[in-house]
Specification:
alpha+beta, Cytochrome p450, five-stranded mixed sheet
């Protein structure tokens, strides 16, 4: 068997390939790019619970140069380990608790309604361009205090950073990820300096003023945090919404259940995440040799943890390939597990719930008009480039 997350054929439907990995190659080794793959739920969950053995600090992608892990001068929360990770996470986690995020509901709902109104006025309405992409971009920008005039630039930087293919040698250069990343970090550094001089009612201003255990966040830590939020807060939620738009078009009876009973949508978000994860998997690096399924993974090896495969493992859930919006909530791995559990999970869940409460209220009969769907070309990301629709009946109110 051959497997690479960068295989363009995989993006169309990765789940049969994941099934073969789980059944026949539970500790797969890609010799060309020299990384291993864990695809079963118990194995992926166990690895996520052992951050000392499966470390994040040497990069979260496979097939990239050794320096991919991040900038030496800009610490990113998701590629820190141990006490450094714990200390920085403590500084920022309060702003992302479910209680703190809940107060954003009126803002998110207003943004969603305005975007739907705009969508319905378009000659060619596109649910990515006009809804799933701008919604999280606007919300995270409001949270951080990023000017509205800069949101398009941020979206472009995010797309350039996340959507690349490192298996093509010519793409590993500053124009294919490193350049936009540097530009975004510089941009955010300037925003931080503005807030230092003139604080506002935004998260960055509050973090600048916060002190814990006798210290404050450094500028580099704030840049890394803002960088991560602008990228992660945009990409994950955009693709969660896009994937779900496709799922509900593919499963009209499940869509009808949500239209008839909107109270199901909150629970259904967990099924959206389980069934087609926006982040299919991330890598870790082994700090010691690990023996699993008759194979020894050496120390200093990259290991791709396939969250999306684990979520479809029948060791974890019954009838895993059945999409069921009424399914009892499951401990899916789409936000990770353990110490690196996604800091923005509560925000992504809230945005997705509101997005589909509003979409299914106002355009319940939408229909995708372009098949097959053009998928995002990125190893860890599953999403759509565009989703043109027929609006069908537009509900009033």
């Amino acid at each position: 068997m051959e497997f690479s997350p960068y295989d363009p054929n995989l993006h169309r439907d990765p789940y049969p390939v994941y099934r073969e990995l789980r059944e026949k190659h539970p500790a797969f080794h890609n010799e060309g790019l020299d990384f291993y793959v864990l695809s079963r739920y118990p194995d992926v969950a166990a690895a996520l619970r052992l951050p000392e053995t499966f470390v994040s600090g040497k990069g979260l992608a496979v097939g990239l140069p050794a320096r991919e892990a991040g900038s030496e001068s800009v610490p990113l929360l998701n590629v820190l380990d141990g006490d450094e990770h714990h200390s920085l996470r403590r500084f920022v986690r309060e702003g992302f608790s479910p209680r703190s995020i809940a107060i954003l509901e009126p803002l998110i709902r207003n943004v969603a309604r305005e975007l739907i109104d705009d969508l319905c006025q378009q000659d060619v309405p596109d649910l990515v361009r006009h809804f799933s992409n701008p919604l999280p971009t606007i919300v995270i920008s409001e949270l951080l205090g990023v000017p509205i005039t800069d949101r398009e630039r941020i979206k472009d930087w995010s797309n350039a950073i996340m959507r690349f293919d490192p298996t093509t040698p010519g793409n590993i250069d500053p124009r294919a990820g490193v350049g936009p990343a540097f530009e975004l970090a510089e941009y955010f550094g300037a925003v931080i300096e503005e807030r230092r001089v003139e604080p506002r009612d935004d998260l960055i201003s509050r973090l600048l003023q916060r002190r814990m255990a006798g210290r404050q966040l450094t500028k580099a830590e704030l840049v890394g945090f803002g960088f991560l939020l602008l990228i992660g807060g945009h990409e994950t939620t955009t693709n969660l919404i896009s994937n779900t738009v496709i799922l509900l078009d593919d499963h009209p009876s499940e869509r009808r259940r949500l239209i008839d009973d909107p109270a199901l949508i909150g629970n259904a978000v967990e099924e959206f995440l389980r069934f087609d994860a926006p982040v299919q998997g991330l890598a870790r690096t082994t700090s010691r040799a690990v023996s699993i399924h008759g194979r020894t993974i050496p120390a200093e090896s990259k290991v791709l943890l396939l969250f999306a495969s684990a979520n479809r493992d029948d060791r974890f859930v019954d009838e895993p390939d059945r999409f069921d919006v009424g399914r009892k909530s499951t401990a899916h791995l789409s936000f990770g597990l353990g110490s690196h559990f996604c800091l923005g999970a509560a925000l992504a869940r809230l945005e997705a719930r509101i997005a589909f409460e509003e979409l299914l209220k106002h355009i319940p009969d939408y229909r995708l008009t372009q098949r097959p769907v053009q998928r995002v070309k990125s190893g860890p990301i599953r999403g759509a480039v565009r989703l043109p629709i027929d609006l069908g009946r537009v509900a009033s109110g």
